[in-house]
Structure prediction request, 117 residues.
Amino acid sequence: MHRFVKLEVYQKALKFTGEVYKFSNLLPDDERFGIVSQLRRATTSIVLNIAEGAGAGSDMEFKRFLRMSLRSTYEVNSIFDIIKELGLSDLESVENLRKNLDEISAMIFGLIKSLNN
Prediction:
């Protein structure tokens, strides 16, 4: 088994991806190829970059992929802002997801920091 599967941040990001997919199913159908598609791609990028980085072979490469994962969290956060601005969902749902995203961001940042030491 690969080590990334055991990482708490990977597990949390994977669960978050499922939550985002469920949430995005509730967004308007006319956003399927716009906001929904971009939100899903950015969210899955968080998980996939953690996994890909873990298999990179060095801490330096792992950190590079973790930084990409962290950037994807910023992208998802911005998409949540767009969803709120356009009134595409209730604020409570978006803020609950954002809270989980903030935790994932902090965990990724902490993992990067631990690899620097």
